[in-house]
Amino acid sequence: MAVPLALLAALVWALNPRQPKLAPAPLGPPPPVCAKLPREFTPTDITHLAEPPFPALPRERELRALFHMNTEPCPCGCKLSLAACRLNYPSCKTSKELAAKIVESSGH
């Protein structure tokens, strides 16, 4: 009984392909400014942003402002929507200014 098990174990060991020794890529801190990546603009579907604040806007106007920010590309060069740039790069001054203008225009 031990011999067939030993032969079976040897067969399994011989047929097992050698596995490469992979290691995950090291994660660094996110860049302080928007990354200029070679990609196409894709609208997003972000439903809530902490910044900019929506000062006492009715929910309908808040959603209209979010829709506008999700469908407009940020001109800073990151090729993300304004909403995605605000979410991923809160220090981006370009998206902050434009988002504030959109919220201000939605209030009227």
Furnish the topology, listing elements before pairings.
Elements (H helix, E strand, L loop, with lengths): L1 H14 L43 H13 L10 H7 L4 H14 L2
Helix pairs in contact: 2-4, 3-4
Outline of the structure:
The protein has 108 residues and is an all-alpha fold. The chain has 4 helices and no strands. 44% of the residues lie in helices and 0% in strands.
The structure class reads mainly alpha
Multimerization status: single chain
Number of helices: 4
| Radius of gyration using CA atoms only | 26 Å
What is the typical, i.e. mean, pLDDT?
A: 84
Q: For the report, how would you describe the main beta sheet?
A: none
SSE string: HHHH
| Percentage beta strand | under 5%
Taking pLDDT < 50 over at least 5 consecutive residues as the criterion, the unreliable ranges are none
Query: Percent of residues in helical segments?
Result: 40-55%
Number of E strands: 0
For the terminal residues, how far apart are their CA atoms?
86 Å
Note the overall shape.
elongated
